User: Which sequence fits this backbone?
């Protein structure tokens, strides 16, 4: 099995392992033991409100510190976990951990939401409604502080069953955002069938908005679509200062990206709760 050269998803820990050939079975075995061995960690990438400049939420992102290969990006190991079914255990673990951390931050006095990615495979393998309910009950987190991020690929599962589960969770106050919107071809259809209240616009659409009128027009159309549907929009992958003013002019609600904040360990994320982004790198309050 060829392991792609990859770097930490936050780019803040340097390169991980170089392109190599690993024995797949051993690698998957390692993955299955990673949680018990304490090698998995959850990092939190801030999401800022574009109008107020204040911290609004964190997206929980997995890190795997392999004892031999170093930090391995989720882009590589999550597909393996989905293939083997381990994603059910891993997904439950992340959800519980993220809810516990978020509840601690909320208890400190300031409301902040936590966004947790749910794999389409999880809907096939387990009751997402049940594990969300268990995580909320075990941690005491206010359901209104939890957002689930799902991708359009969720349509490979029974989309009506998924929609039903999400509606019931929504009645509890749990939010749901369609992730990486604009990266595929079926997003529009999925958007119409699922009760989403958030739209995360894929980072592939933002990269040229500060240099191309065409790119801006496409981005504006996607953001307008989200607003027409009553969804809060999040710009993913904000990495250029000139993008912020353009996003504000388009009425985008929130921003996430290396320009404003990289994924942080839990302790650093906690210290950010209630703060504003560093001066000069952030939109000033509208
Ligand atoms: Ca996501």
Assistant:
């Amino acid at each position: 099995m060829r392991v792609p050269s990859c770097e930490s998803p936050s780019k803040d820990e340097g390169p991980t392992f170089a392109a190599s050939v690993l024995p797949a079975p051993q690698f998957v075995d390692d993955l299955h033991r990673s949680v018990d061995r304490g090698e998995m960690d959850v990092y939190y990438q801030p999401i800022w409100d574009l109008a107020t400049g204040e911290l609004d939420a964190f997206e929980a992102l997995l890190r795997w510190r392999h004892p031999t290969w170093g930090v391995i990006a989720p882009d590589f190991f999550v597909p393996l976990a989905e293939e083997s079914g381990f994603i059910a255990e891993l997904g439950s673990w992340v959800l519980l951990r993220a809810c516990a951390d978020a509840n601690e931050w909320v208890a400190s006095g300031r409301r902040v939401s936590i966004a947790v990615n749910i794999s389409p495979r999880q809907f096939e393998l387990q009751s997402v409604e049940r594990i969300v309910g268990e995580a909320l009950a075990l941690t005491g987190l206010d359901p209104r502080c939890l957002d689930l991020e799902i991708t359009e690929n969720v349509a490979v599962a029974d989309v009506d069953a998924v929609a039903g589960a999400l509606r019931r969770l929504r009645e509890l106050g749990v939010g749901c955002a369609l992730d990486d919107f604009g990266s595929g071809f079926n997003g529009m259809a999925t958007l119409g069938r699922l009760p989403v209240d958030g739209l995360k616009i894929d980072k592939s659409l933002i990269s040229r908005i500060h240099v191309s009128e065409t790119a801006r027009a496409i981005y504006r159309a996607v953001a307008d679509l989200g607003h027409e549907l009553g969804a809060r929009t999040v710009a993913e992958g904000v990495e250029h200062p000139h993008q912020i003013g353009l996003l504000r002019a388009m009425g985008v609600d929130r921003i996430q990206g290396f320009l404003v904040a990289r994924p942080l360990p839990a302790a650093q994320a906690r210290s950010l709760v209630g703060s504003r982004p560093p001066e000069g790198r952030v939109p000033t309050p509208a």
In short: The mean pLDDT is 86. Residues 35 and 93 are 8 Å apart (CA to CA). The radius of gyration is 18 Å.
